[in-house]
Amino acid sequence: MATLALDTQPPEQSPVARFVRRALPIVGAIFLITFALIQILPFVYTLANSFKCLPVIGANPQAVIPVPPFGVPCMVDGSAVSASQQSSGITFNPSVEGYQEILNLNLPRWALNTVIYAVTIMLLRLAFDSLAGYALARLKFPGNRLMFLMVLGTLMIPAVVLLIPRFIILKQLGMLNTYQGLIITLAADGFGIFLMKQFFESIPEEIEEAAMVDGASRFTLFFRIVLPMATPALTALAIFSFQGQWNNFLDALVIIGGNQSLWNLPMGLAFLRGAGGETLRWHQFLAGSVLTTVPLAVIFFVFQRYFVEGTAYSGLKG
Amino acid sequence: MAQTLTPSSAVAHGSFMTQADRRRQEALTGYAFMAPAFIILLVFLIIPLLAAAYFSTTDWNGVTPLTRPDAYQSLGVRNYERLLFEEGIRQERFYTSLKNTIYYVLGVVPLQTVLALLLAVVVNQRWLKAKGFFRTAFYFPSITSSVVISLIFMWLFTSNGLINQGLGAIFPNYQNVTWLNDANGVIHNLLRLFGITRAAVGDWASVEIASIRLWDWISGPSVTMLMIMLLATWTTIGTMMVIYLAALQNIPRHVYEAATVDGANAWQIFRRITVPLLRPTTFFIITIGLIGAFQVFDQIFVISNGGPNDTTLTIAYLVYASGFTDQRMGQAAATAIVLFVIIFTFTLLQRRFVGDRAVT
Question: In this structure, which of A5, A177, B21, B83 has its CB flanked by the most CB atoms within 10 Å?
């Protein structure tokens, strides 16, 4: 409607203005498509090259279309197969040797550790953050305001600044290089508490008052009535926490870096670099990158709405 | 209790349990609910920060057990003096990392904010089909691990990698650039194009300020640092775009319609309506951008280890290197505290501008 009204206005009828209005969507679309390609192509090439032998990656990284025969070997009669035998132009014969090698290099152990860290930290945060968020939102006790300010204050402490002090404290507690060292350190976070508090404050208090009158205790009330209503916030918190811990490198480096059998995937991948000496074994790195990313990508596509809404919510609330 | 059956039961209930009893019980519940999370934050965040402040005044090496009487000596503010004021290698390393971090922040924060805003505005257009696809495409990199992304970038930009091969195929005379091992500052490179070199500008360029020559202060980020800056921008614009998009969708349609009826063109609408209405969001995005950029670490660790020639040595990496590589835990703690003060100052400055709107 508005544009119709506008078209009848003489000043807007100038050819330049009309041209600009027509061209704008095209320029915008080109801009978007360019950026979408920049964001997506690195992953496409990573995926394709993770299925190549090392010489093929070096000689023909641009080949993205897999053609049969599949599962070609990288070594024949003790010498490396030449790149031209396994690829030409934009096609290549896929090989799974990069994956086989990285699976033999402790990757399953790192993956298991990553799952242990990500899941336990997520569950603990769901419990501890929502309890604390509820207390701050609803319960009156001396020090409530002060504790809230301290929780907010922790949000301003940059993770990097904690690198050294956490090392000192965990060393004193004898928790360096243990599972519990990493898990307990990260079992609650200011952001999660803040998110839950904001959410609980948005729930009408009358619902809880009604239940209180019926004689329910605060504990029953919290677990039976309040928590089920908080599913959206809990989902967002679960996703943020899981994603953050799946990718957590900094804390892992300091807290569990000293014991290889405790490493998570980012730690393992980061230190693969030095493992091969001078030659960088890209087929392993790329296979490892794909294996690290795929579980999170699956979760992302299944729960995409929550990722995006959670991010948007934290932005609007922040 | 049986009396919950009648409407007056609430009153009866109240007289059963005095007001003070109830308040006390609520307080106890509150502490019980707060306890797990608060103890964790106290032990692993707040006390460590205080411990860092304390150890920043010592020469502890991080290895000797603290139970030994000779584990460390108190140095007072010596660590800070060496970092900030006293000419020497530590001052040079610190100000090099400060310089690198400042160039990094000055490049990354404006770039990612502007790009995220532009992308969000275009994705928000009514004529756009496949909004969901674009949102997903932009957001996807930000869910992946920083280590994975760094490895992928290393591979793409390695000297005989995809980018160089691609450029070589397009431009026949292209000489491979060693993107990830090039210490030349981009401002120096630009100046050289105009014939301005260190030899040409005269002696003033050799004047040292804080152990770094004036000429080196104006180097700009090195080529390698520039690549890491692009990598960081590439990773974060998705998240920021989603935040902008949510804010854009909160702007009522009739605001735009009114402007269109008044004859405003697309640029005027963007400049006079969209940007001002997005102010709080922009401040939020700049804040999280600043906090993140000042802490850049993972990418440096994987890609460059602070090299070449210390041109990607950031403050965060210096904290790690002096604590764990050089085993100067006291020095590292002091560096960390300085970084904390810098980030805290920026956060406070930002809050002053936004007033009481933003919390983080």
Answer: B83
CB within 8 A of A236, min separation 6: which ones?
A195, A306, A309, A310, A313, A314
B171 at A interface, C-beta within 8 A = no
Q: Which domains, from first to last, does chain A contain?
A: 102-317 (1.10.3720.10)
Per CB-CB distance under 8 Å, the chain B contacts of A36 are: 133-134, 137-138
Taking only the tens place, the pLDDT of each residue in A103-162 is: 998 899 999 999 999 999 999 999 999 999 999 999 999 999 999 999 988 887 878 888
For residue B13, pLDDT over 60 is answered with no
Candidates A168, A172, A182: best to mutate against B (most CBs of B within 10 A) is A168
What predicted TM-score, i.e. pTM, was given to this entire model? 0.88
Q: Which residues of A touch B63 (CB under 8 A)?
A: none
Q: How close are the terminal C-alpha atoms of chain B, in Å?
A: 46
Q: For the segment B253-286, what is each residue's pLDDT rounded down to a tens digit?
A: 888 888 888 888 888 888 888 999 998 888 888 8
Distance CA A37, CA B153 (A): 15
Structure tokens at A257: 């870096």
The reply to whether CATH 3.30.420.10 applies to domain B78-185+220-354 is no
Q: Which helix (H) or strand (E) holds A91?
A: strand A91-92
